[in-house]
Task: structure prediction
Amino acid sequence: MRFEHLHTDPSGARRGRLHLTHGVVETPIFMPVGTQATVKAMTVDELESIGAQIILGNTYHLYLQPGHERIRTLGGLHDFMGWKRPILTDSGGFQVFSLGDLNTVTEEGVEFQSHRDGSRHFLDPEKVIAIQEALGSDIMMQLDECPPYEADRDRVARATERSLRWAERSKAAITTDRCSLFGIVQGGMHEDLRRASAEALVAMDLEGYAIGGLSVGEPKETMIAVLDYMPDCLPREKPRYLMGVGKPEDLVEAVARGIDMFDCVMPTRNARNGQLFTRHGPINIKNARFKDDPNPVDETCGCETCRRYSRAYLHHLFRSREILGMRLMTLHNLSHYLTLMTAIRSAIEENRFSEFRKAFHSDLEQPST
Amino acid sequence: MRFEHLHTDPSGARRGRLHLTHGVVETPIFMPVGTQATVKAMTVDELESIGAQIILGNTYHLYLQPGHERIRTLGGLHDFMGWKRPILTDSGGFQVFSLGDLNTVTEEGVEFQSHRDGSRHFLDPEKVIAIQEALGSDIMMQLDECPPYEADRDRVARATERSLRWAERSKAAITTDRCSLFGIVQGGMHEDLRRASAEALVAMDLEGYAIGGLSVGEPKETMIAVLDYMPDCLPREKPRYLMGVGKPEDLVEAVARGIDMFDCVMPTRNARNGQLFTRHGPINIKNARFKDDPNPVDETCGCETCRRYSRAYLHHLFRSREILGMRLMTLHNLSHYLTLMTAIRSAIEENRFSEFRKAFHSDLEQPST
Result:
């Protein structure tokens, strides 16, 4: 992997380029989430057509079903799902702690019960690397321990230190240079813990750094406060990935603070629940006011859904629980996110990110029609 | 509407061409079912790409949700759903009798409770025409009374005669020449009733004739026995539509007996349940033997699903209840039906339908791999 840091806008926003095994990714970038070897409701052709450059796969889900060894035999995750561009896989840690039942964490690793069938499993840093190598990920994430937001400082400190030891073990477990490893900064909402975590990870000279443990229930100002100091603790010449974030406005604010990469289920999951993003904020298509509305979701949006279909039709599809509704709404939301990132990249290149950011917030404050 | 009867193969199979308000349809044809203003899981572009020439909409469902007046205001069913090619709508009669609760039939019409919310509604032949005109259908079906398969001869006879009077009223209710009316032959499994029904409808000089009341639970031989005499009771110069049928082999056998048009939920509904049609018969993708199978559903099929994805991937998507699985499997099944109809049309044009039919059945008898 190679990261080119192309340009920094006067605001501090960065424009970069990631060279990965399966291609090039222009940053800042949003990565659609493809949990179970599919970005829900989308084909890979649709993802390409709306400009998705890299997608995320979930190690926890793929390990349980269909199994990483099966995917390896079938040619790796790329061949299995027909996606030719880069893939980042998470470590499964977050899902073990949030979905898995009765998990037990030791220094060695984590034992848990599958949320699917109750079967017992054990994952450690080495196995998590082996799984991601079997999947053929362009970017692998280290296994980390994710304490809940409510955890006290001692517990967060212990989890952060253990995650650092797991990062060392992850790096040592790598057997191929086709898959790059990112470390994950933890430390909860404690600045000293986070700074120490970042410093230790940077000393390991990993290929990229993620900020974990945000967007876990904390107030927005708390997240912003972490982002105010966190990116500066990370090296300029390595990519910075803010995990699991967020709303469009969160992306803009994080880019302003020097973040390069994002993933979030929000555009896809919310689409399936009828929430559609527009430049004036989200609307919910199930609202009765849309049932006779002949207009597109967002008249300034160039996506297939907005060019072809009315809010009235989407309202009808949603009320009728039709699969096509979920498809068209997912396509719109992902287009909205990816178009936003394209606009962000152009603004940085042209040294006008601060103006862009102002105009973005001003649009957002106007009432959606 | 104009129907060109282009050619009859020595077997009796017919090749024709329907000229409708929204375009030309080459027959014999299969019409994908788009119950709620969408062929489930498909976009209109996908339907066009696999060669769908005409689709079916369900009057009963569209009347209840979103309502025909709303669809009229939004530009008609074509504009509402973005489909530019012809649409046939059924009368809603079949759904009133099968889905509606507590229906009461009188000479005037039928009162029923919505299966959605229990609200009470009344439909008569005139209103059913008005609804279909509001939808802007290319082909409208008359309201008919559909007695259950178990009904005794007297009940069938009364329903058949009432359906004839409703056909007269339907014809008299038409207010536009943009929408063509088809009559529906009833008569259950009674040859004399069916012959009398056909004779009376033909005397009304309608634009096409459907055979109703088949595929309602009768043995296959009973349906074939009706098809052995029924098409000959209908005029050569008008299209013949076998409603709600059926499996690929049923289509081939009905074409051999002079049928021009078909519709059925089988390819779409069965896809969502994991059943995929191949030239060697159906397979069920949830079967464990497919979980490591790197082959396409049908190696001779040219559809996107077969060109791009393995049975193992479809098996995984189905097990994971992913929307993409329903999409890819629906696309395959509809392609299978539409490709079959294309092959049938070529065989008729080249006077080799009998050989085609033999080869089709021979393929079907071979074990699916």
Notes: Residues 24 and 122 of chain A are 34 Å apart (CA to CA). The interface with chain B takes residues 36-38, 40-43, 65-66, 70, 73-75, 80-82, 291-292, 294, 308-310, 312-313, 315-317, 319-320, 322-324, 326-328 of chain A (CB under 8 Å). Residues 2-264 of chain A form a domain with the TIM Barrel fold (CATH 3.20.20.105).
